[in-house]
UniProtKB/TrEMBL annotation:
Coiled coil: none
Originating species: Panagrellus redivivus
Chief place where the protein resides: nucleus
NCBIfam families cross-referenced by the UniProt entry: rad14
Subcellular location: Nucleus
Domain XPA C-terminal positions: 96-145
Family from the record: Belongs to the XPA family.
Transmembrane listed as a keyword: no
Protein name per its UniProtKB record: XPA_C domain-containing protein
A Pfam cross-reference name: XPA_C
InterPro entries in alphabetical order: DNA-bd_dom_put_sf, XPA/RAD14, XPA_C, XPA_sf, Znf_XPA_CS
GO cellular component, one term: nucleotide-excision repair factor 1 complex
Length: 236
């Protein structure tokens, strides 16, 4: 069921996502100037997610665990992530590890829209940031759901690794270019520091010597007595 306001909020969220998110090889990690957008995105996604949570909670709970096939029963993974795995199978430090949104972006090259706009939106739980409460809440996602989403976006986990390599080599190439430019600039600076200052060019009125006939050009010529200038001319 659609609530009033959905229509207005979702495109705004979408617009925010599209800002500075042009290509996957450039995704993951944010510069300082993205903080404002990140902040606005956070607020927008939180209210959006609250609405989503109601939808998640309305999904009927399956009877069985998808891993062992036994009765699902009380399941933290179901309650928090709609992931039908029982408490016995729940492998908190391994297969069902929780990963922060920031780490997931880097690890799986996901963009904000891949978390929130692709259907179904990925469910998360919020935790206070242990390093600094001022950073805002950490969003924790479930590893197998992230992997499934990443495969949906990139085709396979292998292609993510290829993209990452491309990203690294592109960054290396950029650094190399920057380094070469710097070296070149330094060399130019050194050269001009060592080179004798070019004498300022003084223009003057040429003072011509005697007229001569130049057989080579079949013209007459006159040399300036004060500089290297030679003037050639025909005579009728
Ligand atoms: Zn189980
Ligand atoms: Zn001259």
């Amino acid at each position: 069921m659609k609530r009033r306001g959905d229509k207005d909020n979702i495109p705004a969220v979408e617009k925010l996502y599209k800002k500075n998110q042009q290509d996957y090889s450039a995704s993951g990690g944010f510069g300082a100037k993205d903080d404002v957008y990140e902040e606005r995105r956070n607020r927008a996604t939180t209210s959006y997610q609250q609405r989503q949570h109601r939808a998640f909670n309305a999904v009927p709970k399956p009877d069985d665990c998808t891993e062992c096939g036994d009765f699902l029963g009380e399941s933290e993974l179901w309650d928090r992530y709609n992931f039908a795995v029982c408490s016995v199978c729940n492998d908190k430090e391994g297969r069902h590890k929780l990963i922060t949104r920031t780490e997931a972006k880097d690890r799986f090259l996901l963009k904000d829209c891949d978390f929130d706009l692709r259907k179904p939106p990925l469910r998360f739980i919020s935790k206070k940031n242990p390093h600094n409460p001022r950073y805002g809440d950490m969003k924790l996602y479930l590893l197998p759901q992230l992997e499934a989403r990443a495969i949906e976006v990139h085709g396979s986990l292998e292609s993510i690794e290829e993209l990452k390599e491309l990203k690294t080599s592109r960054r290396d190439a950029m650094n190399e270019k920057r380094f070469e430019r710097k070296i070149k600039a330094m060399r130019t600076e050194m050269k001009s520091a060592c080179a004798p200052k070019a004498l300022p060019k003084v223009t003057h009125t040429h003072v011509y010597g005697p007229e001569e006939f130049d057989a080579e050009s079949d013209q007459y010529k006159k040399n300036c007595t004060e500089c290297d200038h030679v003037t050639y001319y025909d005579k009728m």
